[in-house]
Write a structure and sequence with these properties.
Layout: E1 16-20, H1 25-33, E2 37-42, H2 47-52, E3 55-58, E4 61-62, E5 66-67, H3 72-80, E6 88-90, H4 98-105, E7 110-111, H5 115-122, H6 124-134, E8 141-142, E9 152-156, E10 166-167, E11 177-181, E12 186-195, E13 200-209, E14 219-224, H7 230-247, E15 250-260, E16 263-270, H8 277-280, H9 287-295, E17 308-315, E18 332-333, E19 347-355, H10 358-377
Parallel strand pairs: 1-2, 1-6, 2-3, 6-7
Antiparallel strand pairs: 4-5, 8-11, 9-10, 9-11, 12-13, 12-15, 13-14, 14-17, 15-16, 17-19, 18-19
Length: 381
């Protein structure tokens, strides 16, 4: 049986923590593990987030553009009332809105990357120039249609999550979209805490896609790797330290690489706590604490792992007019509420598994997914 690190509501020892994200559940769970009371604004206000948060609010917005910026500051002020929060932690949804991050920082103590740091790594030209200057392998980019489009992908400037990526077909792109040369290989991500010369890697994960029509690189899931070659880890750690200092990154971030026959190529930097937070978090050394400490310039502690853990997003293949009610297992999160209407391709939940090896963990994850899928596809128990 897989059990998530318990984020149960226990007496707070570290006060309130503001959270703003497209989905706030993972950050709320991490805040609970670190002894904070989460105050959450996101797009869903799902039942898990409500259960974890001291208070949770839902704002309008969409998965591509994030939350409506004009209502965010009033919502956060309403959540805090007269209390001064420990910090405001930002999750997904701000990669294309660095000016909104700058605005929030004028009202709240933001922990993590500021607007300028986000611009430095989410602007394709700036990231490419930084990688060239720091001798970090990075694919060629272009704003013009290449002569060999079959060897390129198209991406959205500031995009995240994989759904914005597609294969080039030779057609000109609208504003905000660019070409990146395709790199064949396996996807590997490094979760790290940026803190200048003390930037350190939390761990590595192998990621996979959940292909969908029009979204061949939609994020599917990730498994935490038990072992990683030391020399490679040190080399990648050097790249991330250099990039963190160059771009003034701070706090929890992640870096996506492609491992090919010629080595590792940096594809993207996510300047925020990312999708693998759940599978790397730990009670003994909570990652939210490391995020806050690094952001404040304090020493921080990282967890250590002896097993593997994985998570995946379960999507529905067909529309669901009314999501059925059933008893959810404790290895699922981001759960849909009974009666919810879902379109084909919508996320249903996040599924977890843990094991002594990567292979055993991935096998358990697939079994868990099939078990749950029967409830909403086949009218299971």
């Amino acid at each position: 049986m897989t059990h998530l690190p318990s984020p149960a509501k226990s007496p707070s020892k570290n006060g309130a923590l503001l959270i703003a994200s497209i989905s706030g559940r993972a950050l709320a769970a991490a805040a609970r593990r670190a002894g904070h009371r989460p105050l959450v604004v996101d797009l869903f206000r799902d039942c898990d987030t409500v259960a974890l948060a001291e208070h949770a609010m839902k704002l309008p917005g969409d998965l591509h553009s994030g939350m409506a910026g004009d209502g965010l500051v009033p919502a956060l002020r309403q959540l805090t009332g007269d209390e001064r929060p420990a910090a405001l932690v930002l999750g997904s949804g701000f990669e294309r809105r660095p000016e909104l991050v700058d605005s929030l920082a004028r009202h709240f103590p933001v922990a993590g990357c500021g607007g300028e740091a986000i611009r430095a790594v989410k602007d394709p030209d700036r990231l490419a120039r930084a990688c060239a200057e720091l001798d970090i392998p990075h694919p060629e980019i272009s704003w013009k249609t290449p002569a060999d489009p079959e060897n390129w992908v198209v991406k959205t400037s500031g995009g995240a999550g994989g759904s914005h990526i597609g294969r080039a077909n030779g057609e000109p792109l609208p504003a905000g979209r660019y070409f990146q040369r395709f790199v064949e290989g396996n996807s590997v991500s490094a979760l790290f805490v940026a803190a200048g010369k003390d930037t350190r890697i939390v761990g590595f994960s192998r990621q996979w896609v959940a292909r969908a029509p029009g979204a061949p690189y939609r994020y599917g899931g990730a498994v935490r790797l038990r072992r990683f070659p030391r020399d490679t880890a040190e080399r990648i750690g050097g790249w991330l330290r250099a990039l963190a200092r160059h771009a003034n990154l701070v706090g929890l971030c992640s870096a996506d690489f492609i491992r090919s026959g010629s080595g590792y190529t940096l594809i993207e930097i996510n300047p925020r706590p990312g999708a693998t937070l759940d599978i790397f978090d730990d009670h003994k050394a909570p990652l939210i604490t490391a995020h806050l400490d690094a952001s404040a310039g304090r020493p921080f502690r990282l967890p250590e792992f002896t097993d593997a853990m994985a998570s995946m997003i379960a999507y529905t293949d067909a529309p669901i007019a009314s999501f059925p009610a059933f008893a959810w297992p404790d290895w699922a999160a981001d759960r849909q509420s009974p009666g919810t209407q879902l379109a084909a391709g919508d996320p249903v939940c996040t599924i977890f598994a843990r094991g002594l090896s990567v292979a055993a963990t991935c096998k358990a994850l697939k079994a868990n997914a099939l078990s749950l899928q029967s409830h909403w596809e086949g009218g299971g128990p």
